[in-house]
């Protein structure tokens, strides 16, 4: 009995030590779980400070606002669209292949560099004036084409639209070609000659695109497929402008897209008729 009692007394410190260690572990785990609240509280405090600063700065200075807006407007008006193979706002993008004149070459204006006019705004540069003139020319072109279409009752054959890339003139294939062929009909040359007379006054690029429906060529045709047919039709229109009307070939580009760019549903005869077309687009793009 004495031995047992002595043994129990010796084990009592071990039990208390283990209990204290367990309590210490629980305390450490509890502290680790709550550490994320420190970061969260710091984040909330920073957000509060941020919104307080924003509120304190929310008073609008009208004069500074007008200066900033006029500066941005002047910058973006002078920008050369990268989407049209331009050199960008800074004049550094696509510097080796861009088609529009570089910004560094046309920094002057009629009223002198860096001088403001009587209205307080900076004068337009030569490049900005050229773009403005081009917009006027395109608007006048569209008006003349619409008038010609109406006067000659060609609404079912020709459609004109002002698109972001330029003035688009869509000619139905029945107006230009026989089925499966790329030779221009004699009745279409009058209209093409009228377009050529209007194009002669423009200094921009004109894109000619041939399109077909998704039906394979089944008639007796020298063309293997719709790719060849669409390209040949676009080339026929280009040849008319360049060879017969003597327009500058440097102002033209052409391509054939077959049925890859439909304008309507190819599942119906009406849709397929709309897809068989030639699109002539006068691009919003200055020549070098």
TrEMBL record:
InterPro entries: Bact_OuterMem_StrucFunc, MotB-like_N_dom, OmpA-like, OmpA-like_sf. Residues 165-286 form the OmpA-like domain. Residues 106-122 have a biased composition (Polar residues). GO terms for cellular component: plasma membrane. It is a single-pass membrane protein. It comes from the Bacteria. The keyword Nuclease does not apply. Signal peptide: none annotated. The keyword Protein biosynthesis does not apply. Keywords: Cell membrane, Membrane, Transmembrane, Transmembrane helix. SUPFAM superfamilies: OmpA-like. It is found in: Cell membrane. Residues 1-19 have a biased composition (Basic and acidic residues). Belongs to the MotB family. This is OmpA-like domain-containing protein. The lineage of its organism: Bacteria, Bacillati, Bacillota, Bacilli, Bacillales.
């Amino acid at each position: 009995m004495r031995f047992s009692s002595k043994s129990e007394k010796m084990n009592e410190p071990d039990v208390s030590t283990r209990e204290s260690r367990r309590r210490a572990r629980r305390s450490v785990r509890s502290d680790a779980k709550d550490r994320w609240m420190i970061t969260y509280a710091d984040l909330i405090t920073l957000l509060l400070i941020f919104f307080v600063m924003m509120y304190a700065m929310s008073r609008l200075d009208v004069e500074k606002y007008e200066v900033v807006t006029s500066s941005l407007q002047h910058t973006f008006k002078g920008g050369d669209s990268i989407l049209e193979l331009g050199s960008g706002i800074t004049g550094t993008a696509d510097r080796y292949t861009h088609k529009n004149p570089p910004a560094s070459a046309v920094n002057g204006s009629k009223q002198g560099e860096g001088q403001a006019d009587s209205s307080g705004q900076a004068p337009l540069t030569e490049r900005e004036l050229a773009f403005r003139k081009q917009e006027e020319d395109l608007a006048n072109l569209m008006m003349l084409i619409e008038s010609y279409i109406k006067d000659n009752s060609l609404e079912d054959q020709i459609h004109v639209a002002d698109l972001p890339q330029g003035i688009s003139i869509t000619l139905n294939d029945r107006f230009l070609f026989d089925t499966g062929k790329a030779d221009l009909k004699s009745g279409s040359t009058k209209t093409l000659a009228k377009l050529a007379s209007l194009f002669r006054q423009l200094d921009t690029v004109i894109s000619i695109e041939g399109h077909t429906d998704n039906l394979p060529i089944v008639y007796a045709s020298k063309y293997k497929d719709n790719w060849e047919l669409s390209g040949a039709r676009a080339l026929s229109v280009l040849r008319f402008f360049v060879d017969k009307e003597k327009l500058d070939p440097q102002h033209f580009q052409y391509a054939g897209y077959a049925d890859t760019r439909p304008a309507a549903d190819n599942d119906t005869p009406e849709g397929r008729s709309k897809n068989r077309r030639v699109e002539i687009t006068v691009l919003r793009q200055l020549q070098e």
